Amino acid sequence: MPGRRRLAALVPLPAGATAAVATAVHATHPDADEAPAEVRQHVRYGASPRAGIATLAGARALALLRGRAHVSPEDLRDALLPALRHRVLLRYEAVAAGVSVDDLVRAVLASHPVR
Asked: Is the whole model's pTM more than 0.85, yes or no?
């Protein structure tokens, strides 16, 4: 297993990928200028920088699983939701109203597309 992890860590990222992921992660914080209105209303705590690290690692692994030796924007987008899903904490009112973290992450991606 460690050999596979090492191999995934070597998969190159496209230019600007780290910045795009950092912007998306930061936009999960309700006090961030980049946060969409839904995040400002429903999120208590946004994702930490570790969410970005997990996203990049997941995107690299997805690229390998998909038979590519490089990360595509699709890999980044597909890795964001699982990496952020359990790292964003909602306000009680949002949970009671049935708002999901998935909906909020999609709102973040709509405002800050990863390309």
From this structure: yes
